[in-house]
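Ticket #4471: structure output looks truncated?

Reporter: J.K.
Steps to reproduce: submitted the chain below (292 residues) through the standard prediction queue, then opened the result file.
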Amino acid sequence: MNYNSLIKIFILTKKILNIENLCDTKICVLSEGLTNKVIKLSYNTETYIIKIFNKIHDSNIRLNELFISKKCDFIPNIIYQNSDFRIEKFINSIKYNDCEKLVFFNFHYKNLMTILKLFHSQKTFYNDIVLYKFYNQWKDSHEIKKLCLNIPHTFNKITKFINDSHQIVYCHNDVILNNILVSKNMMYLIDLEYSGNNYLLYEFANMFNEILIDYDNYSYRKSGIEWLKEIILIDYFGDNIDIKQILIDITKFQKISNFLWTLWSFKQLDYINDNDFDYARYGHLRLEMFNN
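Returned output as attached by the reporter:
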């Protein structure tokens, strides 16, 4: 986004939030990625998040996110949104380190499952299954071509097991520690830019993959969360599920998740150069997880 467009956004933000003088605000860029530039703006006693939509922007997902935020109190309130950016209320939450993942999910999984059940009951404005949509968006990049992988063959092979028995619901598709906020007695889900209709078991597979990853060191634990998987799945589905079969299918969906985020990582390199996050290294990490 160019400088003039950014100025227009801040002028409109000033009007919407009734800010007398932008010089009286405190502005901090939190992150800049393929989908969003995230800016934190503080004025008087209030703090807001401004998300400026970047290169890949799906208007259907944004529209659905706006609709759901009005219905669900576990989604931060969106104050304003247009095709270029959005303003939402900042949630002052407890900060957890990456090394605290297991403790966090063990302590908060019941509240998280309650929220996910509500989230999964929501309806979308479109019928696309985002697993295939993500693949088509991310499969072509300069970096992935260097790996000499047969991308279509691999994707078809790892998705071949999926059939009509696999339930499709509205999924978040990026339930990671940083996207779960705990503030006082409330829990919130944020960053819905990858949300959409998807296979329910993919949601859990992707979440379990994320629990394994150490983002600080670009590494992952190869095992050790089987107990956590079982208590989460039993809490969500109940005691009468075939836990063995579900875990078999989730393992297969975990492979798809690792493959898709490998493609995503290398696709990022076509657009941005973020010194705070090594997309190439992360891509190779997810590729290693996929191959193991």
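Triage note (M.O.): checked the attachment and the full token line is present. The domain at 98-291 is CATH 3.90.1200.10 (Aminoglycoside 3'-phosphotransferase; Chain: A, domain 2).
Status: closed, working as intended.
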